[in-house]
From TrEMBL:
InterPro entries: Kinase-like_dom_sf. It comes from the Bacteria. This is Aminoglycoside phosphotransferase. It comes from Kibdelosporangium aridum.
Amino acid sequence: MLATVVAGAGGELLHWSAAQVDHQPGKRTTVSYSATVKWPDGTRNEILGASSGQLPDGVVRITDGTTDVGVWRFPFDPDLPGLPRAVDPAQARILIEASGLDVGGDVSIHTRAYRPRRRAVVEVRLPNQRRVFIKVVRPKLAKDLHDRHRIATTAPESLGWTDDGLVLLAGLPGRTLREELLDYKGVDPRSVTDALDGLPWELGGKRRPTWGQKAAHYAEVVAVTAPHLSKRAWLIAAKVHHESPEGPDVPVHGDFYESQLIIHNGQARLLDIDTAGRGERLDDAACLLGHLSVLAQIRADHAAHITDVQDELAAHFSEQLDPLALHRRTAAVVLSLATGPHRVQEENWLRNTELRVELAERWLG
């Protein structure tokens, strides 16, 4: 399939491997591939994307008579039409200058994240050491994301947005909490809750399902990819599920983990707020604790320090939240993270999935 598409563009596929697998049961599966392609002007590493389910315009379609699969080459993602401009240094410079910043020379770019058909983050480094981040989203989401960053004082300032789905964000000084932890440093728990308290009510909207209420979806993904873990995953989902709210409505971040916190001069600020809205503080607290417990599992060389910081944060959160509900919600987050090893195609993804299921079980006690 990939070779056919590459050949149609004038290249020869020399090697490929799956890099990410986003499986949505009953809807679609989207896969990104790391590939080596021989072109007429030389051999390069490429990212290729493929997706089943409802396909957007702008993809090459291949079918076996039953299933249609759309294929594209990065950065020409059919749902992210602004991505080619964002990863072109000359175009990125034009965008930044149009926002009013004096660039003062050539810029360099680095793609920090790419989720096919969903979003990308491109870091642009200016000659004066200043950084601008270009968030690439579906076009219909860009203005709302821009508006969110304009009203949230604890998040990066938006410098502007474009009709093709680009939002320019000013870089913040400091390092992510993940970087701090891997340098054996920590964070004042009070500054973490202060950052969350700074989320404005205007972000509101419809109350979002909690991690506990979404657990059945992640149990299904685990069951499909690792059937031998099905019973355990579904049992976790049953234990963390709740019908009634377990906390009051508050503004929530929605994806609150160690790489979403920037630490500078001892104070924490938020990095992205595209997932922010109405929800329960339990969700944000549990999201951070769940990610830290998985990070400690992944980085055994830093596990003791990460766990110490995690315990400090858990004690602080438990002063404001029900500790038992917090543990249940954290187990739900860890269950969601059990889908990660397969999604990013880790070498030992099956074993790592089981380790995360075990970790979720430990949070439940």
